[in-house]
Amino acid sequence: MQIVILNDAAAVAAYGANIFATQLQKKPTSVLGLATGSTPVALYQELIAKNKAGEISFSQATTFNLDEYLGLTGDHPQSYRHFMNEQLFSHIDINKDNTFVPPGDALNPITACKEYEDKIVAAGGVDVQLLGIGRNGHIGFNEPSSGLRSRTRVKTLTKATVDDNARFFAADEYQPQLSITMGIGTILEAKKVVLLATGENKADAVHAMIEGPLMAKCPASALQLHKDAVIVIDKAAASKLEDLEFYQHIEAENQKLQAHLVTL
Protein backbone atom coordinates (compact mmCIF):
# COMPACT_ATOMS: atom_id res chain seq x y z
CA MET A 1 0.00 0.00 0.00
CA GLN A 2 1.02 3.58 -0.64
CA ILE A 3 -0.34 5.74 2.18
CA VAL A 4 -0.90 9.42 1.32
CA ILE A 5 -1.94 11.65 4.23
CA LEU A 6 -3.15 15.14 3.32
CA ASN A 7 -4.46 18.10 5.27
CA ASP A 8 -8.13 17.98 4.40
CA ALA A 9 -10.89 16.49 2.27
CA ALA A 10 -10.35 18.99 -0.57
CA ALA A 11 -6.71 17.92 -0.90
CA VAL A 12 -7.76 14.25 -0.88
CA ALA A 13 -10.21 14.85 -3.74
CA ALA A 14 -7.66 16.79 -5.78
CA TYR A 15 -4.99 14.12 -5.31
CA GLY A 16 -7.37 11.34 -6.31
CA ALA A 17 -8.63 13.27 -9.32
CA ASN A 18 -5.07 13.77 -10.55
CA ILE A 19 -4.53 10.01 -10.55
CA PHE A 20 -7.58 9.51 -12.78
CA ALA A 21 -6.67 12.46 -14.99
CA THR A 22 -3.15 11.12 -15.50
CA GLN A 23 -4.58 7.72 -16.40
CA LEU A 24 -6.87 9.23 -19.06
CA GLN A 25 -4.06 11.34 -20.49
CA LYS A 26 -1.84 8.27 -20.73
CA LYS A 27 -4.58 5.97 -22.03
CA PRO A 28 -7.71 7.69 -23.42
CA THR A 29 -9.43 4.29 -23.76
CA SER A 30 -9.06 3.57 -20.04
CA VAL A 31 -11.53 1.40 -18.15
CA LEU A 32 -12.38 3.21 -14.91
CA GLY A 33 -13.98 1.67 -11.85
CA LEU A 34 -16.16 4.19 -10.06
CA ALA A 35 -17.84 4.51 -6.68
CA THR A 36 -20.75 6.37 -5.12
CA GLY A 37 -21.22 7.96 -1.72
CA SER A 38 -20.36 11.37 -0.32
CA THR A 39 -16.56 11.02 -0.50
CA PRO A 40 -16.18 10.67 -4.32
CA VAL A 41 -18.38 13.71 -5.12
CA ALA A 42 -15.58 16.24 -4.68
CA LEU A 43 -13.30 14.08 -6.86
CA TYR A 44 -15.94 14.01 -9.59
CA GLN A 45 -16.24 17.79 -9.41
CA GLU A 46 -12.49 18.03 -9.97
CA LEU A 47 -12.74 15.72 -12.99
CA ILE A 48 -15.66 17.68 -14.44
CA ALA A 49 -13.62 20.88 -14.18
CA LYS A 50 -10.64 19.25 -15.88
CA ASN A 51 -12.89 17.94 -18.65
CA LYS A 52 -14.48 21.33 -19.27
CA ALA A 53 -11.03 22.94 -19.32
CA GLY A 54 -9.96 20.52 -22.04
CA GLU A 55 -7.33 18.83 -19.88
CA ILE A 56 -8.91 15.36 -20.15
CA SER A 57 -11.53 13.60 -22.24
CA PHE A 58 -13.80 10.70 -21.37
CA SER A 59 -14.99 10.23 -24.96
CA GLN A 60 -13.16 6.92 -25.39
CA ALA A 61 -13.37 5.75 -21.78
CA THR A 62 -15.49 2.96 -20.30
CA THR A 63 -16.70 2.90 -16.69
CA PHE A 64 -17.94 0.23 -14.31
CA ASN A 65 -19.53 1.09 -11.00
CA LEU A 66 -18.98 -0.96 -7.89
CA ASP A 67 -22.53 -1.56 -6.81
CA GLU A 68 -26.24 -0.81 -6.91
CA TYR A 69 -29.25 -1.27 -4.67
CA LEU A 70 -31.23 -4.35 -5.63
CA GLY A 71 -34.84 -3.42 -6.32
CA LEU A 72 -34.31 0.12 -7.66
CA THR A 73 -34.62 1.10 -11.31
CA GLY A 74 -31.94 3.26 -12.86
CA ASP A 75 -34.17 6.34 -12.84
CA HIS A 76 -35.00 6.05 -9.13
CA PRO A 77 -33.65 9.13 -7.31
CA GLN A 78 -31.80 6.95 -4.79
CA SER A 79 -30.30 4.55 -7.33
CA TYR A 80 -26.58 4.69 -7.96
CA ARG A 81 -27.18 4.95 -11.70
CA HIS A 82 -29.11 8.17 -11.04
CA PHE A 83 -26.35 9.35 -8.69
CA MET A 84 -23.65 8.81 -11.31
CA ASN A 85 -25.65 10.57 -14.01
CA GLU A 86 -26.23 13.56 -11.75
CA GLN A 87 -22.77 13.75 -10.22
CA LEU A 88 -20.59 12.93 -13.24
CA PHE A 89 -21.85 11.41 -16.48
CA SER A 90 -24.22 14.22 -17.49
CA HIS A 91 -21.44 16.79 -17.11
CA ILE A 92 -18.62 15.20 -19.13
CA ASP A 93 -18.06 14.05 -22.71
CA ILE A 94 -18.61 10.37 -22.03
CA ASN A 95 -20.79 8.07 -24.11
CA LYS A 96 -23.35 6.84 -21.58
CA ASP A 97 -23.58 3.56 -23.51
CA ASN A 98 -20.07 2.92 -22.17
CA THR A 99 -21.04 3.53 -18.54
CA PHE A 100 -22.07 0.41 -16.63
CA VAL A 101 -23.78 0.11 -13.26
CA PRO A 102 -25.05 -3.20 -11.88
CA PRO A 103 -28.75 -3.51 -12.84
CA GLY A 104 -30.77 -3.09 -9.67
CA ASP A 105 -33.96 -4.02 -11.52
CA ALA A 106 -32.62 -7.24 -13.09
CA LEU A 107 -35.26 -9.96 -13.44
CA ASN A 108 -32.61 -12.56 -12.68
CA PRO A 109 -30.00 -10.92 -10.40
CA ILE A 110 -27.79 -14.02 -10.26
CA THR A 111 -27.47 -14.10 -14.05
CA ALA A 112 -26.98 -10.33 -14.10
CA CYS A 113 -24.00 -10.66 -11.74
CA LYS A 114 -22.28 -13.14 -14.06
CA GLU A 115 -23.00 -10.92 -17.06
CA TYR A 116 -21.48 -7.93 -15.25
CA GLU A 117 -18.29 -9.87 -14.59
CA ASP A 118 -18.17 -10.90 -18.25
CA LYS A 119 -18.52 -7.27 -19.38
CA ILE A 120 -15.55 -6.22 -17.23
CA VAL A 121 -13.43 -9.01 -18.72
CA ALA A 122 -14.55 -8.16 -22.26
CA ALA A 123 -13.54 -4.53 -21.69
CA GLY A 124 -10.03 -5.64 -20.76
CA GLY A 125 -10.32 -5.27 -17.01
CA VAL A 126 -10.38 -2.15 -14.84
CA ASP A 127 -7.33 0.12 -15.13
CA VAL A 128 -8.04 2.25 -12.03
CA GLN A 129 -10.67 1.42 -9.42
CA LEU A 130 -11.99 4.11 -7.08
CA LEU A 131 -13.08 3.05 -3.60
CA GLY A 132 -14.44 4.54 -0.43
CA ILE A 133 -14.60 2.74 2.90
CA GLY A 134 -17.52 2.21 5.24
CA ARG A 135 -17.31 2.67 8.99
CA ASN A 136 -17.35 -1.13 9.32
CA GLY A 137 -14.56 -1.50 6.75
CA HIS A 138 -16.71 -2.42 3.77
CA ILE A 139 -15.62 -1.64 0.21
CA GLY A 140 -18.35 -1.58 -2.41
CA PHE A 141 -21.13 -3.42 -0.61
CA ASN A 142 -18.74 -6.14 0.52
CA GLU A 143 -19.76 -6.26 4.14
CA PRO A 144 -17.77 -7.93 6.94
CA SER A 145 -17.51 -11.71 6.35
CA SER A 146 -17.12 -11.23 2.58
CA GLY A 147 -14.71 -13.71 0.99
CA LEU A 148 -11.42 -12.48 -0.43
CA ARG A 149 -12.13 -14.32 -3.69
CA SER A 150 -15.77 -13.21 -3.98
CA ARG A 151 -17.13 -12.10 -7.35
CA THR A 152 -19.97 -9.80 -8.35
CA ARG A 153 -22.99 -11.05 -6.42
CA VAL A 154 -26.12 -10.24 -4.45
CA LYS A 155 -25.21 -9.14 -0.93
CA THR A 156 -27.32 -8.45 2.17
CA LEU A 157 -26.53 -5.07 3.73
CA THR A 158 -25.63 -4.93 7.41
CA LYS A 159 -27.65 -2.83 9.83
CA ALA A 160 -24.66 -0.47 10.16
CA THR A 161 -24.63 0.20 6.41
CA VAL A 162 -28.41 0.56 6.23
CA ASP A 163 -28.30 3.01 9.13
CA ASP A 164 -25.46 5.01 7.56
CA ASN A 165 -27.34 5.30 4.25
CA ALA A 166 -30.73 6.03 5.81
CA ARG A 167 -30.02 9.76 5.60
CA PHE A 168 -30.43 9.56 1.81
CA PHE A 169 -33.98 8.16 2.07
CA ALA A 170 -37.15 9.89 3.29
CA ALA A 171 -38.67 8.53 6.49
CA ASP A 172 -41.54 6.85 4.61
CA GLU A 173 -39.43 5.81 1.58
CA TYR A 174 -38.53 2.20 0.79
CA GLN A 175 -34.86 1.54 1.57
CA PRO A 176 -33.38 -1.60 0.03
CA GLN A 177 -31.68 -4.16 2.23
CA LEU A 178 -29.99 -5.99 -0.67
CA SER A 179 -27.46 -4.93 -3.27
CA ILE A 180 -25.50 -6.13 -6.27
CA THR A 181 -21.81 -5.51 -5.70
CA MET A 182 -18.48 -6.29 -7.29
CA GLY A 183 -16.75 -8.88 -5.13
CA ILE A 184 -13.46 -8.39 -3.34
CA GLY A 185 -11.85 -10.75 -5.83
CA THR A 186 -13.19 -8.60 -8.66
CA ILE A 187 -11.86 -5.41 -7.07
CA LEU A 188 -8.42 -6.91 -6.47
CA GLU A 189 -8.10 -7.67 -10.19
CA ALA A 190 -8.06 -3.95 -11.04
CA LYS A 191 -4.61 -2.86 -12.17
CA LYS A 192 -4.61 0.04 -9.70
CA VAL A 193 -6.85 0.80 -6.73
CA VAL A 194 -7.37 4.26 -5.23
CA LEU A 195 -9.21 4.43 -1.90
CA LEU A 196 -10.29 7.79 -0.46
CA ALA A 197 -11.26 8.33 3.16
CA THR A 198 -11.92 11.55 5.04
CA GLY A 199 -13.16 12.46 8.48
CA GLU A 200 -12.65 11.15 11.99
CA ASN A 201 -15.64 8.80 11.64
CA LYS A 202 -13.53 6.72 9.22
CA ALA A 203 -10.44 6.59 11.46
CA ASP A 204 -11.19 3.19 13.04
CA ALA A 205 -11.84 1.59 9.65
CA VAL A 206 -8.68 3.14 8.18
CA HIS A 207 -6.64 1.85 11.12
CA ALA A 208 -8.05 -1.67 10.68
CA MET A 209 -7.45 -1.59 6.92
CA ILE A 210 -3.82 -0.46 7.10
CA GLU A 211 -2.48 -1.69 10.44
CA GLY A 212 -4.83 -4.50 11.35
CA PRO A 213 -4.53 -8.11 10.21
CA LEU A 214 -5.93 -9.33 6.92
CA MET A 215 -9.40 -10.45 8.01
CA ALA A 216 -12.94 -10.84 6.73
CA LYS A 217 -14.14 -8.60 9.57
CA CYS A 218 -12.55 -5.67 7.71
CA PRO A 219 -13.05 -6.27 3.98
CA ALA A 220 -10.85 -3.29 3.06
CA SER A 221 -7.87 -5.06 4.65
CA ALA A 222 -7.81 -7.17 1.46
CA LEU A 223 -6.09 -4.20 -0.19
CA GLN A 224 -2.97 -5.23 1.70
CA LEU A 225 -2.73 -7.94 -0.99
CA HIS A 226 -2.89 -5.53 -3.94
CA LYS A 227 0.35 -4.66 -5.72
CA ASP A 228 -0.71 -1.07 -6.51
CA ALA A 229 -3.16 0.25 -3.90
CA VAL A 230 -3.04 3.97 -3.08
CA ILE A 231 -4.78 4.99 0.16
CA VAL A 232 -5.48 8.74 0.15
CA ILE A 233 -6.71 10.06 3.51
CA ASP A 234 -6.94 13.32 5.41
CA LYS A 235 -5.41 13.89 8.84
CA ALA A 236 -8.72 13.20 10.59
CA ALA A 237 -9.11 9.79 8.95
CA ALA A 238 -5.46 9.04 9.75
CA SER A 239 -5.77 10.08 13.39
CA LYS A 240 -5.76 6.53 14.82
CA LEU A 241 -2.81 5.19 12.84
CA GLU A 242 -0.10 4.12 15.25
CA ASP A 243 2.76 4.69 12.77
CA LEU A 244 1.56 8.03 11.40
CA GLU A 245 5.02 9.62 11.26
CA PHE A 246 6.42 6.59 9.47
CA TYR A 247 3.79 6.77 6.71
CA GLN A 248 4.38 10.48 6.27
CA HIS A 249 8.14 9.91 6.01
CA ILE A 250 7.75 7.12 3.47
CA GLU A 251 5.42 9.23 1.32
CA ALA A 252 7.84 12.17 1.44
CA GLU A 253 10.66 9.89 0.29
CA ASN A 254 8.42 8.49 -2.44
CA GLN A 255 7.70 12.00 -3.73
CA LYS A 256 11.44 12.74 -3.83
CA LEU A 257 12.01 9.54 -5.80
CA GLN A 258 9.26 10.37 -8.29
CA ALA A 259 10.68 13.87 -8.80
CA HIS A 260 14.13 12.40 -9.39
CA LEU A 261 12.84 9.90 -11.94
CA VAL A 262 11.11 12.68 -13.87
CA THR A 263 14.44 14.50 -14.26
CA LEU A 264 16.25 11.42 -15.58
TrEMBL record:
<feature type="active site" description="Proton acceptor; for enolization step">
    <location>
        <position position="67"/>
    </location>
</feature>
<keyword id="KW-0021">Allosteric enzyme</keyword>
<dbReference type="GO" id="GO:0004342">
    <property type="term" value="F:glucosamine-6-phosphate deaminase activity"/>
</dbReference>
<comment type="similarity">
    <text>Belongs to the glucosamine/galactosamine-6-phosphate isomerase family. NagB subfamily.</text>
</comment>
<feature type="active site" description="For ring-opening step">
    <location>
        <position position="143"/>
    </location>
</feature>
<feature type="site" description="Part of the allosteric site">
    <location>
        <position position="146"/>
    </location>
</feature>
<feature type="site" description="Part of the allosteric site">
    <location>
        <position position="153"/>
    </location>
</feature>
<dbReference type="InterPro" id="IPR037171">
    <property type="entry name" value="NagB/RpiA_transferase-like"/>
</dbReference>
<dbReference type="InterPro" id="IPR004547">
    <property type="entry name" value="Glucosamine6P_isomerase"/>
</dbReference>
<feature type="domain" description="Glucosamine/galactosamine-6-phosphate isomerase">
    <location>
        <begin position="9"/>
        <end position="229"/>
    </location>
</feature>
<dbReference type="InterPro" id="IPR006148">
    <property type="entry name" value="Glc/Gal-6P_isomerase"/>
</dbReference>
<feature type="active site" description="Proton acceptor; for ring-opening step">
    <location>
        <position position="138"/>
    </location>
</feature>
<dbReference type="InterPro" id="IPR018321">
    <property type="entry name" value="Glucosamine6P_isomerase_CS"/>
</dbReference>
<keyword id="KW-0119">Carbohydrate metabolism</keyword>
<protein>
    <recommendedName>
        <fullName>Glucosamine-6-phosphate deaminase</fullName>
        <ecNumber>3.5.99.6</ecNumber>
    </recommendedName>
</protein>
<keyword id="KW-0378">Hydrolase</keyword>
<dbReference type="Pfam" id="PF01182">
    <property type="entry name" value="Glucosamine_iso"/>
</dbReference>
<comment type="subunit">
    <text>Homohexamer.</text>
</comment>
<comment type="pathway">
    <text>Amino-sugar metabolism; N-acetylneuraminate degradation; D-fructose 6-phosphate from N-acetylneuraminate: step 5/5.</text>
</comment>
<feature type="site" description="Part of the allosteric site">
    <location>
        <position position="156"/>
    </location>
</feature>
<feature type="active site" description="For ring-opening step">
    <location>
        <position position="136"/>
    </location>
</feature>
<feature type="site" description="Part of the allosteric site">
    <location>
        <position position="155"/>
    </location>
</feature>
<comment type="function">
    <text>Catalyzes the reversible isomerization-deamination of glucosamine 6-phosphate (GlcN6P) to form fructose 6-phosphate (Fru6P) and ammonium ion.</text>
</comment>
